Amino acid sequence: MAALAFEGRRHLFRAALGNFGIPSTSTKRTMPLFVAVRGIEYPNSWTGASLRFYSLAGTAAAGNARASSRSMIRMGEHAPEAGVTQLASELGLTKATVHRLLNAMERFELIERNSENERYRLGLKLHQLGTRAVESRTLRNEAHRLLLEMSRRSRETVSLAVPAPGGVICLDRVNSPHTVINVCTPVGAMFPPHCTAAGKAILAYLTEEELLEVVKRSGLRRYSPFSISRLPDLKENLRLIRQRGYAVDHQELERGLSGVAAPVLGAHERVIAAVGIAGPTQRFRAKELAQKIALVTEIAARLSMSSARLEGNGATTPQAVSWGSNASSPEVAE
Hints:
- Strands 5-4-3-8-7-6 form a 6-stranded antiparallel β-sheet, with helices on both faces. A two-stranded antiparallel sheet has the order 1-2.
- The chain is α+β, with helices and mostly antiparallel strands.
- The protein has 11 helices and 8 strands.
- The protein has 2 domains: 126 residues, Winged helix-like DNA-binding domain superfamily/Winged helix DNA-binding domain (Arc Repressor Mutant, subunit A), CATH 1.10.10; 175 residues, Beta-Lactamase (2-Layer Sandwich).
- Helix content is 51%, strand content 15%.
């Protein structure tokens, strides 16, 4: 019975090794060693052998995955093409192991072999996957996870605003269950730019011509006794925003509602967006206000870094808009 159990385990082990690219011919050497090392404690226990077998198989799979990744990164960063001997030497692997890994990756079109010189290069499948990755990482997709984090950490409602022709548009928002806001700008609607923190964070980085175009279209309506309703006062407030790096709105849109926001900047101080936090005024004072300012500037800086990577990879951002009087509002994907 013990001999039958041993033989069954050996066939199972041989089949699994084949799945992980390890030649089954090595089983005759590997299995007795496996039994000798692992079978002392469980000489006749199928359960004990099975548990240790799966541990070994998982280790082999992880090692192969790491080696495959290292091979592709090496080819992508250091040379357009590489041979088996070169990769084996640089990665510290045997040529047989490298050859086996390359064959496996070639089957999935992750790499391809140049038939003229028998060297390997990255496959077009990687280009396809990379293009999809860039396309999926739009500004809104990239920002949403940061908005979720900002809402969780602040326990307030947060939003993402972007410049639009003649104004500022709400591109995304995350409502907090801890806050009830009576005046709420829905996704796709225009922010009152002169009396909201997110709106002013964007206005502060527009040119004089662009700012005047926004004021001409939106006006300087007095929503509350604290609203800025004169252009010289607005310009002075925007100057302070540029100097501090963040915007504050103290009940300028509605009594009892305050907010903070920070700009998301691209190349050459070009404003791409703004992220903002809004909530009851009593939670935007003293230490709590300072904490929210630190949080919103941190999130804006992280999103600025992400947008720089997107632009470097050829992805589009919402900044490519026309501020002329005939421009129409951009479409916003819900």
